[in-house]
TrEMBL record:
It is found in: Membrane. Pfam families: SNF. InterPro entries: Na/ntran_symport, SNS_sf. PROSITE patterns: NA_NEUROTRAN_SYMP_1, NA_NEUROTRAN_SYMP_2, NA_NEUROTRAN_SYMP_3. SUPFAM superfamilies: SNF-like (SSF161070). It is a multi-pass membrane protein. Keywords: Disulfide bond, Membrane, Metal-binding, Sodium, Symport, Transmembrane, Transmembrane helix, Transport. GO terms for biological process: amino acid transport. NCBIfam families: Na_transp. This is Transporter. The chain crosses the membrane at residues 85-103, 115-136, 157-185, 245-262, 274-299, 319-341, 361-382, 414-436, 457-481, 487-508, 528-550, 570-591. Belongs to the sodium:neurotransmitter symporter (SNF) (TC 2.A.22) family. Disulfide bonds join 197-206.
Length: 624
């Protein structure tokens, strides 16, 4: 369906298009005003004194003067082009998980049949939340901290929880990108170092996968390169003894942080230029790899394995839970990124159409990545004369062992390796840009005088702090900590945080009020489908995923690495460190930051702050 029109002409899901002559709340379509305030400061009335010609103006004595103060309002930055915003959102949503997680979950849960629950949860769960965050950020034009005084002040702890989760993500996600950087530099040789078993790091069990004597007891050169050269995990004892920091790996991760800094230090002015490369490059590489993959022998068997529907698996509740989890973590609502990115949009930008376009592209990218991965897995099964289920791995092992293994057997392997790891790096950079920008925008909006005016310095100090915190992930046992942080950092906590966020917006602020906000931006109120999803389906969707994730947290850790008993207590402490921000701030807001009796304190805590002023151009005050 054509969505290139500048008007919101969509009628899908009950979203009625505005009339062609409907007036927009922003007549000249220029930049919207910035509603940045220092923390806990109220907006005063900047009224200009009445002119002397005003008959209602008070008469002044000869020695009295009127002091006229000119107040210049700081304008919030906006994206240089609409395409920059779309690319930034797509880049954040399309990450490494689209390549290494979706294909594995798809074939594990019924192949083509898995697309049924996947699309169901996209329409009823993921897309409504995605649309909500884009609309919230665009309407209120602030990050995940300042926005809560306009919605439900007591839930400001949600914003602090998101900032803490983003720090945890930065601690391990950039390390994974650092692994890809290590592989990229290792690829600039005449022969890929994981092609043979003649290297100093190889063991006696090493054997090329093309060997007829290859058994389950043997290890491939690619596996030994990853575990014994890149990570050197054999020098550690897991979390009990992680060993020292590996200098070469730390240098690669440091390079990632340098790239991140110079992409984020100027805000949307710098990030908007970078996303043209980091968001588009993965698609160019994916298409090149797809063309190469489908031309390999055995590729057709791999694609059949990927797509052949096993309808009986839909009776298994785990398939539906996996589909719900995958769509949630793929779209990424709740990390504060969508709020931050959309807050730099113009007020009457069509965020409804943006939500449909970007979420659809994200899901189609996952589907495309499945063809890229399984065509190569089919080829590897053909080379090894085995079944596909014995070739594939989930997670990092898929992109750092299996795929490099396949590349090493191709002609022109050096070229394919270079572009593949460039794709992984750009996929990862976009996502880490988004996660960190969410926190940076939130703190700059909350403290504009202290932090906002010194953004470059603040971003430098923040990234230096996260890099120091991430050093343990660069040790010889760092890969165990990376997997540990992935589960206990954002993995469990973000589900609860987003549930509280949805409850605050849909139940405390109210779907009717939120729909009215959308109508002011787009000229039409969201249809019945969206209001039902926001009121009932989406919160239940989040709560269900959270409960099942809590029950299956050990399964999320996997069985590849050993975790000592004490690590589970530490893991839950990490999870609670972000989750507890929510009740702790509610207690602070009710008992210490509010005045009056119990009724007045409840009203001050759970109703929008009337002193915030209106975000709608040309209006003063706000209705609560």
């Amino acid at each position: 369906m054509d969505r290139s029109s500048s008007k919101n002409n969509s009628t899908e899901f009950g979203h009625t298009a505005p009339a062609s002559g409907a007036a927009t709340p922003w007549g000249n379509n220029k930049e919207s005003p910035n509603n940045e305030d220092d923390s806990n400061e109220d907006d005063g009335d900047n009224a200009t004194p009445a002119k002397a010609t005003d008959p209602l103006a008070p008469r002044l004595a000869n020695n009295e003067r009127i002091l006229v103060v000119s107040v210049t309002e700081r304008q919030r930055e906006t994206w240089g082009q609409k395409a920059e915003f779309l690319l930034a959102v797509i880049g954040f949503a399309v990450d490494l998980g689209n390549v290494w997680r979706f294909p594995y979950i798809c074939y594990q849960n019924g192949g083509g049949a898995f697309l049924v629950p996947y699309c169901v949860f996209l329409i009823f769960g993921g897309l409504p939340l995605f649309y909500m965050e884009l609309a919230l950020g665009q309407f209120h034009r602030c990050g995940c901290l300042s926005i809560w005084k306009r919605i439900c002040p007591a839930l400001k702890g949600v914003g602090y929880a998101i900032c803490l989760i983003d720090i945890y993500m930065g601690m391990y996600y950039n390390t994974i990108i650092g692994w890809a950087v290590y592989y990229l530099f290792a690829s600039f040789t005449s022969q890929l170092p994981w092609t043979s078993c003649d290297n100093p790091w190889n063991t006696q069990n090493c054997m090329p996968v093309t060997s007829e004597n290859f058994t389950e007891l043997a290890t491939s050169p690619a596996k030994e390169f990853f575990e014994r050269k890149v990570l050197e995990i054999y020098k550690s004892d897991g979390l009990d003894f992680m060993g020292p920091v590996k200098p070469t790996l730390a240098l690669c991760v440091f390079g990632v942080f340098v790239l991140v800094y110079f992409s984020l230090w100027k805000g949307v002015r710098s990030a908007g230029k970078v996303v043209w490369v980091t968001a588009l490059a993965p698609y160019v590489v994916l298409i090149i790899l797809l063309v190469r993959g489908v031309s390999l022998p055995g590729a057709d068997e791999g694609i059949k394995y990927y797509l052949t529907p096993e309808w009986h698996k839909l009776k298994n509740s785990k398939v539906w839970i996996d589909a719900a989890s995958q769509i949630f973590f793929s779209l990424g609502p709740g990390f504060g990124t969508l709020l931050a990115l959309s807050s730099y949009n113009k007020f009457n930008n069509n965020c409804y159409r943006d939500a449909l376009i970007t979420s659809t592209i994200n899901c189609l990218t996952s589907f495309l990545a499945g063809f890229v991965i399984f065509s190569v897995l089919g080829y590897m099964a053909y080379v090894q004369k085995t079944s596909i289920d014995k070739v594939g791995l989930e997670g990092p092992g898929l992109v750092f062992i299996v795929y490099p293994e396949a590349i090493a057997t191709m002609s022109g392997s050096v070229f394919w390796s270079i572009i593949f790891f460039l794709m992984l790096i750009t996929l990862g950079l976009d996502s880490t840009f988004g996660g960190l920008e969410a926190m940076i925008t939130a703190l700059c909006d909350e403290y504009p005088r202290v932090i906002g005016r010194r953004r470059e310095l603040f971003v430098l100090l923040l990234l230096a702090f996260i890099f120091l915190c991430a050093l343990p992930t660069m040790t010889y046992g760092g890969v165990v900590l990376v997997n540990f942080l992935n589960v206990y950092g954002p993995g469990l906590a973000i589900l609860f945080v987003v549930f509280v966020e949805a409850a605050g917006v849909f139940w405390f602020y109210g779907v009717d009020r939120f729909s009215a906000d959308v109508e002011q931006m787009l000229g039409s109120k969201p249809g019945l489908f969206w209001r039902i999803c926001w009121t009932y389906i989406s919160p239940v969707f989040l709560l269900t995923i959270f409960i099942f994730s809590i029950l299956g947290y050990k399964e999320m850790l996997g069985e590849e690495y050993y975790y000592p008993p004490w690590s589970f207590q530490v893991g839950w402490a990490v999870t609670c460190s972000s989750v507890l921000c929510i009740p702790m701030y509610m207690i602070y807001k009710f008992f210490f930051a509010s005045k009056g009796g119990c009724k007045q304190r409840l009203q001050a805590s759970f109703k929008p702050d009337a002193a915030c002023g209106s975000v709608v151009p040309g209006q003063q005050g706000t209705s609560v």
